[in-house]
Write a structure and sequence with these properties.
Shape: globular
Helix content: 55-70%
Keywords: Membrane, Transmembrane, Transmembrane helix
Protein name: DUF4153 domain-containing protein
InterPro entries: DUF4153 (IPR025291)
Pfam family, one: DUF4153
Largest sheet: 6 strands, antiparallel
Order of helices and strands: HHHHHHHHHHHHHHEEHHEEEEEEEHEEE
Length: about 575
Amino acid sequence: MRLLAMLTSRLTSLNTTIMRFPITVILLVILAVMQCIAIETGHEYGNAVVTLIFAALAFSAAQVYAERYAHSWRTRALPMAGAALLTILYFLLIRHEPAFSTIETTRTSIAIFGLIIAFAWLPSLRGGSSFYANFMILFKSVFRSLFFSTIIYGGIMLILFAVDTLLVQIGSRPYSYTGIILWTVWAPTLFLSLIPVFRANSIEIEHAAKVPKFFEVLISYVLIPVAAIYNLVLLIYMVKTIMLSDWNENLLEPLILSYCIAVLMIYSLSNQLMNRFAVLFRHLAPKLLIPVALFQFASTLLIVLDQGMTHTHYLVLLFCLYAAVSGVILSISSLKSKGYIAILAMVCSVIAMTPPIDAFTTSRISQTAQLQTVLERNQMIRNHQVQPNPSIDRKDQETIARSISYLERIDALQRLSYLPKSFEVSTDFETTFGFSPYAKSDYQSFDIGTDHAVRISGYDHLARLSISKSGGKSDFSISRMSEDGTVYQVSFDPEGRYGAIQITDSRERVLISAPLAPMIHHIERSKKTEGSDTVAVDQMSFEKENDKAKLKVVFQNFTIEGASETTSFNAMVYVLTSLK
């Protein structure tokens, strides 16, 4: 009986939700029907689908706003008219873009992010419930709707599988239709049914915003400590990068972005928690967020100055700026509780989508200007046409290839009047510019084969080392040997471009060191057996001796790629040693 009562209550709640959000539910049903038609006919409704998703969110936010502030049908009509206008503007913005293209998916993601923030922020206007309480309500509703929908979906899939296997074959379409109906109509409707009516001083809102014990433990004793350790690792790496002036790898970008998102999320979710961990996190995290975000801003800006702007770099710069400003806002007691970070997030979303300052327009202008500058510097534009020039600097070749590739990705090549009308990167690039868009490989490989013996007379120990070095990073094995009760170590010293193989005693004093640079230069000039990478053993063997020890280095195999500071190599070597 209790289960039946719960089911009846939930169905009643869903019925109320349909009456409460009629336009949204109608849009979701239309979206589901269009997807089913697409399965039947194979016709793509890409732009229509994303527009309906945008519209459903916009009208949901408008309904929440109307419930909070509208008191007559005229005032209720205004937010609905605003949602309709936003939907029209959004459709006009994407109507010429290919379905599910990079531009369309990126803009849609940004728009959905902005609408979700608006959904949580609008009820907090004019003394309503706080933005952080509304954010918790949305988070709980998403979590619960996903949880129940996943269970229902799994159950239905099992039933369909059993019918298909045991009774009658039903094909694949019932699975597809079930997924569409459940995830397009049921799950969003269930989510909306969990959203309370946002009215001032509503007990229902307080109950809906209450943090469950499970969430409190998860946030306070799992997420916050993990974020703290994560922050420590990032700070150590940042200090290392600054001290070494190594800004080129940009390994931190995905880590810092995920960290900034996590900090802002955890801050918003923990706003109502009063335990020691949560209070300390809210006090320190915003202050630590500022230097981390600014560091990534500076790192990405250096890349942009070197390679030009792309939409991903634009969004990274904008988000880092948003995170840094949010850190400042959350560090000021009089501002942190007013939801200004939500306003700032919506402003950033609008900036990132609105031409001519949006991510794609800015990136297109930047890459086009950079491309034209390089072409003109190399005198490759004559009579408004590109002239091939195979002898230009390799760096300029890479810049041209990178800009052309990016402009093709965002469907902007047709704007370049100096390119042939039927230009295709895959087939016409080399004939148009005079060189291949793909970097020439300078990879080389050498080995001694498996049918050669190595002379070991005159030596007492044999060590085998694995060495890998790429730029400023290296990885290598260590071999130890014992003589007259003293332990010695054969290892690789990574200092310098190629490093050296050395023998050290128990006090880490170097007995002998053999730099690899002259060995590698000799190997690169060695003659290979025709049709293979095999080199004679004597061409891969090197000896060195002093008054303390002697050693012989035999390369079993050796690979090298790159030049100058970008050189990377891997080697497997035998080291024969004898101590004096």
